[in-house]
Structure formats: structure tokens, C-alpha cells
Amino acid sequence: MGASAGGLEAFEKFFQNMSSDSGMAFVLVSHLDPTHVSIMPDLLKKYTKMGVLTIEDGIAVQPNFAYVIPPNKDLAILNGTLQLIDPIDARGKRLPIDYFFRSLAQDLGERAICVILSGTGTDGTLGLKAIKGELGMTMVEDPDSAKYDGMPRSAIQSGLVDYILPPEKMPEQLIKYTKHAVQRVAPGTAPVEGTISDVLPKIFVLLRSHTGHDFSLYKKNTLCRRIERRMNVHQIDIVSNYVRYLQENPHELGTLFKELLIGVTNFFRDPEAFEVLRKVLLKQFANRPHDYSLRVWVPGCANGEEAYSIAIIIRECMDELKRNFGVQIFGTDIDSDAIDTARAGIYPDSISADVDADRLKRFFIKEEDVYKVRKEVREMMVFAPQSIIKDPPFTKLDLLCCRNLLIYLDSELQKKIVPLFNYSLKAGGILFLGSSETIGGFADLFSVVDQKWKIYKRKDKPYGAHAVIELPVMPKRDMPDEIQAPGELPKPGEPNISRFVEKTLLEKYAPPCVIVDQKGEVQYLHGQTGKYLAPAPGRPRWSIVDMAREGLKLQLPSAIRKAISQKKDVTYEGLRVKNNGGFILVNLTVRPVSDPQGLQGMIMVVFEDVTTPKQAESGKTKHGSKKKTEIQLEALEQELQHTKENLKTTIEELETSNEELKSTNEELQSANEELQSANEELETSKEELQSLNEELVTVNSELEGKIEDLSESHNDIRNFMDSTEIATIFLDNELCIKMFTPPATKLMNVIETDMGRPIGHISDNLTYENLVKDAEEVLKTLVFKENEVRTKDGHWYFMRIVPYKTIDNVIDGVVITFVDIHEQKIATEKTMELQEYAESILNTVREPLIVLNKDLRIVSANRSFFKTFQVSPEETDGRLIYDLGDRQWDIPKLRELLEEIIPDNTSFEGYEVEHKFPKVGPKKMILNARKIIRKTERTEMILLAIEDITEKR
What is the span of the domain harbouring residue 602? Predict the structure, then answer.
């Protein structure tokens, strides 16, 4: 399960509804701050009864547990154990979800399930493709329910998602799917492939009717597994019911079609293979002229990743060789939606896991959460829908890249396609296959360049059974049979009598003949062929057509072509062949060789002399005489017959040429469609730009209004701050000045040009030296500081330093304010002086004096009181007068005076009280009291004077 921003809420909803005994294990991968300890396991424990563990390196996965990735780690799974890997970069662009999903696909295959929840960006999309490629199940949160819909939408746009649900509904569907999948593979269950194989023809018919493509020559096991997976998704147990479901739901036919086409592909898959290819291409291109036109075909290109990878490799080769060829790369696929994606050239930013930083910067443009292929690479590409099985191939290619397509086709179809690749390539052209693919039994067509990474080169002159390959009509046309091994040879030293006899008879009785290949190149001569063939002027050439004497040059090429196409003998009788200044009559027979002894695909050309008219006259007793006119008429008829046959041959040649031109025309049509599509894309882009321009105008108007509002707000704030006359300085996180109010210039020697300078570089008029230190501490601890500071001329200010918080609650510096408290400070000092003066007077008076508040708690007392009654200030201040000492002042008479008389009167005098105090003995006192009202605090207090008259009795 992968999530990013908003993922915690999605996890909580998911596990609230997930059974604790589902039999599944859950691995939670999210984007975490690498410097903070994650508390996600503790939070999730509140929502599930399953065990929730922070992953430790090498921990074995157990069912009914949830495992949470720790911070600053990448995660992989190997043989059911979780492996923690230190990332190369702790921060920056990391894709932990893709990393784990790919590992999960490799380790568990079709038992892997991936779930993508709320998050920004595109992390998880490429990993989801890998799991889908291994026939795993994919589930994505509904974007409408996601707090952040970037990751879910990116995954959905891949077209490979099985279920799109809110988190709270995912558990129910997940349990249904897993239960059904387990039942399908339970012991004793009939093998699904067998039952599916019974209805495969029906499914092929439905798919062909819906998509126009025939899957009957694809590998049956692969098809059965993918059909079974679709049945699991829909919880269908009986294959006949699934066929009915396909009939009733055309949408499922489209989904199944895409499911059957899924191939695991990405940029620079097998990087080492592409590096080897780059070195091979450097050698190939080294001798090419600057104006060379390079042609490349990438069949089965899917979304275009492999095609663009080839384009980047070619561009790098041209840069290294400092040449600029004309490059045309044809990317084709039967999936039109995939072709549309390839044409757009826009891929999620998670491709950074496959494309290094230098190539990303060089060949892609970063746009929000995607990468777009640059124009110089896109202009090399031509994308078009095309079926390698039934559509004409591209020809005259320098490079053909077909990786991981043949592995999905059965051997019969592979035998038809490999010769097709040979036909499409130029002599010396490069064939680049997947690491699990091979050319099979066609080693006579290609030479090996790199065995490990399956890079081959087309042979210049391939001889043997597959020497010349016509444009196949796929898939109905059959290719030549395999070459059979030659017969058993005689043992060394043993005479071969039969061979001697055959040779003698051939030399004496067999007519002269020539063995040629399908190109007309002479391979073997028998007998005296000088009457019919002669070396052609110039450099030696072994073409039988070039060597043929006059009278054979016209018929010989057509006879060879007819024998190849019709696979039967072709004979021309009575041909007049020029020889030694005269003419001889020759019967020409061209016969395809059907002998299996390594000669299959060869042609035998036989020459037989015919009796001349003079020879006929000498034997007229046997055959009778002919008139001269009859002989001439016979010659004319024969010549007319030859002319008709030549005309017919010419017409057939024209038809063949027309077929080839038709193939070329279809290729041009494909290119034209691509150009038309590009033109439509430009028109669409123009409309989109116009629409975008209108949107920008609207946004600009809104921004203008917002700027006016902000300007008014700024003026209000400025006037407010100026009217308060409070000196304020705003500092950023580096303690550099961002803004200040005019009163601040009295305290700090700042001017407008000091904006951006550190506050520590500015001189001030304060006697306080810890201003910068306090600001740094507030920025670090986020706890405000307050202090009273004084200027050098003695003026007092109240300084307050607080963190500066943005609307998003982000700390962005500090604010220092200075409030003028000079008058208050002077008044306070005067008050303290008066208080000290009053206390001095009270302490000088010899009579005991105490001050009580309205609750009769002692506010203060003079020294005489403490001395007379032998108490300390700590025992007195703040206590009720009745609680002093051992409640020695709990005198009934005093209570009456203080609680009843004083509230009703402002004073009393001369009240005599006698009381025996535990520590000082009996005392006789005269009490005088006065109510005191403090106007500033509006509180009532009592001044109680005690005159000790004990000694006067």
C-alpha cells in the first residue's frame, strides 16, 4: 500500500474496515521526513486489531500483520523477507513506492496486490505497471475521496487499474478477490487452463469482432493466465459464464484486449543492453555520410518508452560522432490508446528511476509532476497503429528493435516473423531482440553481434534455404520448410560406385544445366554450357541473366521468377540462341529443386538443343517434306507464342511491382496519417492555447483585483502601525531586515537601503547588548522574549521579540517591537520612592502599626510590631490577623471592632483591650484604627495603631 500526503487518513479508514484475520500481509510505504521518527504505527494501532510493526531489516512477512516503512529507508522484498536499503540521497526526488512495488512484482508475481492511496505526484504508477505485467491485482483510491488526488489520478491514467474505490470500501472487495483467487488454485481443483482452452476459439472470435485483431497464434498459456485473472477480478468461476459476460459487456472485451497486450516496459530496460547497442551503432554510423537517412522500426512499442530510448541512444551517437543524420523512427502497436500516449510524449516524473539525471535534463522538459519529451527527440518519431501479423512491414531499415514481443507468440508465428525482419532490414542492418528471445533456426539470415543481449546483424548475402525471403502474407502464407540434414556419407577409403556411375551417365547423356539460387546467382555448372552462357563484359559477375547469350536474356528471368512463384517446371521450346555468328534452336527448362540434400530453394536451368530445319530436310523420307512457307509460318507462330508468353511474364512482373508499390504506398499512408495526426494535434494545441489565454486573462483580472485589495490592506496596515508610534522591525530567518516602521529609526540607525542586511550589522542607540542573541534564541525555541531596555539618552522602552508566523503557520523570522514606557517607568520609580519613604516613616514610629486588607489579612507591619509581639515578617505577611502566632490575636473585643465597627465607620479611637499573649505575657493596649481607600486600585484597607500601656498601669 503506497500513500503520500493525506495518506494517514486513508490508512485509518482502510484498517477500520479491514478484518484482522484476512490472511493477508500489508506493507505500508509512505513518504516520510527522513529526520523525524514516524509515529504512524502507534496511530494505526487504534484502528485495527492486527499487529502493526515498524519494519526491521530482514523481518519475515507474516499474515494478518501490517508493516510500516521506517523513515529514510528504501524497501524491497526478497523470498518473503523485507529488506531495508539506505537511499543514495536522503532528500530530493525519491520514489519509495515504485521501488517496493517493482520488487513485490518480481518476488510474488501474480500473488502481488498493490493499493495506491492519497498523495501528490506520480510515485507508484510505474510500480503498478510492473505488478500488472506479472498478472497481479491493482487497486486505487477514488480521486474524489482522496485528500490529494495526484497519485491516484496518475495511476488511473495508466489504464491498468482493476478497482477504483474509496478506502473504506476497499477491504470488502479485496477479501472477495483474494478468496476467489485462493479457491481457483485450491488442491483438487480442475486446472483452469484446460477449461479455458476449450473456449479460447470463442474468445478469439469475440476479440477479433470487437478489435479486429487475431490472438489465435499467441501463446496459449499466457492467454489462459490473463483470462483467468480477469475472471478473478469479476469473481467468475465458470469459463462459459465469462464468455457470456464478454458477450453482454463489450467494455470487458476492451479491457481484456488491453490485458492481453500488457508488457513490462520502461525507459532503457536492461541498461547494459542499451549500452552495448550504443557501441554497436557507433561502429555502424562511423562511415555513414553526413546526409545519410537513418530508418528505424520499433514494433510493439506500447506507450513509446522503448522507442524514445532508441531515439535518445541515436541522438547521443550522433553527438559523439559530431554528425547529424536524418532520422525516422517508426513506432507501431496494435493498441491505439498506447499510440496516443506515445504521440503525446508525456510521462510521470517517476521515470527518473529509469532515466538518469543527465538524460532527463538533456532530453525532457519538467512540467509540474510530469516529464515531456523535447522537440528534437519527438521530431524523430512517427507513431502509428499497425499489426505485425497482418499489415505490411516497414522496409529498408538500419535498425529493428523488437524486444519482448516474440515471447508472447507461439513458435509457428515466430517462424514467420523472423524472416519478415530479415526482409525489412538493409544488408548489415541491426536486429535488437529481448534478452529472452532468439532468432531460432534462422542463423543463416543473421550473424550474432552480442549473444547475451540478443543483438544480430543481417547477413549481406544469405545463402541456403532461407536465402531470399519474399514479403510474407501474414499469417496465412507458409515459409519454406527447414533444411534437412544431408544423407549419410560413405566411410573414408570406401569407394562410392553409385556416385561414379551417376557422374559418368550425367556427363555423357544428361543435357547441360546450371544450378542458381533464387537471385539468379550461379552456384554450379554441369556440361558444356558455353553455347548458351558467356562471361559478361566488365568485372566478373555470376548472374545467369548477365551471362546468357542473345535469345535467352528475355525468357530466362521470367522463367526463373515463374518457377519460384508457381513452384513448378517452366519450359520454353525452340528459342533461337545466337552462337558463333549463327543461331541454334534450344529448349529451355527451369525447374525448382525439391531435393532435400541442402539444395532446397535452388533452381536448375536445363538447356537442350533442337534439330534445325536443315536436319529435318535430310530426314524427309521419314517425316515427309515441308514447304518453305510452312516452315516460315511455323517460325512466326512460335515467335508469336514466345511474344505472348513474354507479355504475360511482363504483366506478372508488373503485378509484383504493383504489390511492392502498394506496400510502399501503405507505408507512406501510415506516415501521412501520422503527419495528419500531428497536424490535428497542432490544431488542438492552438485551440488549447487560445482557451488557456482566455483563462489567463480571467485570472489576470482576478489578480489585479486582489492586488488592489492587497494594496489597500497594506496601506491600512502601514497607517495603523505608524499611528501606534510603536517601533517595529521585521527580520527573516537569517535575521536580515525585511521591513521596519519609522519610529524604529530612533532606536536603530536604519535607512531604506538597509533592507536585507543582518540586524547585527546595524548600529543602535540602546544600552542593551543581547538583542541579536535574544532574536536567535526566539527563532530557535519559538518562545517569545520580553525585556525593558534603555537608550543611551536614558529613554525607556519595553522590548518584545516574537516568532513571525505566516498564514500557513510557517515560521518565517521574528518581529521586534519597542513600546515607549518612559513615562510609566518614571512614575513607577516615583511610586517606589514614595513607598520607601512611607515605610521609613512607619518603621521610625515606636508604636506598633499594621495594615490590613478588607479580608483582615496583614498587608504590612512596622518594626515596632514585630519587636513588641515577638513575631517575624514571614509569620505575618498575608495571614489573617486572628491566625498570628498561636491565634494570640483572636481577641473577641478586637473581632468586634474590626468586623462590626470598622465596616460601618471610617475610624475608631481609644478602644482599650487587655489580653494575655503566650510569649510576651499580659498586655494592655489602646487601639486606634482608620479606614484607608486606595483610589488607584479602588480597594479598602485598615491602618491599625496599637499603643502598649501595660507599663503605665
Answer: 499-614
